[in-house]
Amino acid sequence: VFERLLPPEVIVAETTSGASDAAVRDLFPEEQAAVASAVDKRRREFALGRSLARRALAELGQPPTPLLHGDDRAPVWPAGFVGSITHTQGLCAAAVTRRGSLRSVGIDAERDVDLATHVLATICDAEERAWLATQPEASQGRLAKLVFSIKECVYKVQYPLSATFLDFSAVRVDVDTNAGRWTATFLEPAGGVFAIGDTVAGKWLRAGGLLLTAATLREPSERG
Ligand SMILES: CC(C)(COP(=O)(O)OP(=O)(O)OC[C@H]1O[C@@H](n2cnc3c(N)ncnc32)[C@H](O)[C@@H]1OP(=O)(O)O)[C@@H](O)C(=O)NCCC(=O)NCCS
Q1: Which residue CA neighbors atom 5 of ligand 1 most closely?
Q2: Do the Cβ atoms of 158 and 166 come closer than 8 Å?
Q3: Which residue of 51, 61, 187, 198 lies most exposed, with the fewest beta carbons within 10 A?
């Protein structure tokens, strides 16, 4: 489903099944070491993400290699590639492309359920909450969850360029509920790469009980 949200040069591999024991066994030794102390659920989701990322990279001609992560947990892609991984109950996906006109990819999947009310004020600022209040009451919780997913997606797409942790207050999200599009505007600078007022545009959809969000960043010279 993520293919519907991404340009054609991004290869998506995804599955609705959980990780088999084989996927965990098939990890490279360096990868197994990276999750050696993790709980079984985490080891499995890590293994599934790695296997899907390798499948997508293979479609782009990249032979299987270990996909480790740094202390920041961001995946380290083979030279010349960029991508993103997400897992949630019922879906795991990896989206990968050759670094060229596209310089970053971000994807996020969340269960399409109401955002817990006690985190609303952390995730959404006053303006976003004011927008939510204009929406039909029955859909406000799930739209708040959508804002959450969009911010996770923005975090993932900006991070490889800025290497900067961002709080949820760092970007303001505007959602087009009809067109399946969104825009996030930086309210704080990030890593000398994004300035206040810079925007990230992305797409979203609902499918199979999930909310999916995705964005790519193009080289500045290729921006419309
Ligand atoms: C990293 C984060 C975005 C992951 O989102 P999540 O919904 O919890 O989990 P998902 O399954 O969708 O994504 C996890 C994957 O994100 C990727 N990831 C982790 N850190 C990352 C980073 N710094 N940059 C890019 N990708 C990252 C990894 O591939 C990870 O899977 P893996 O460990 O199996 O490789 C989230 O946990 C987090 O730390 N957020 C920071 C705060 C934030 O989002 N601020 C919003 C400001 S705009």
Answers
A1: 152
A2: yes
A3: 61
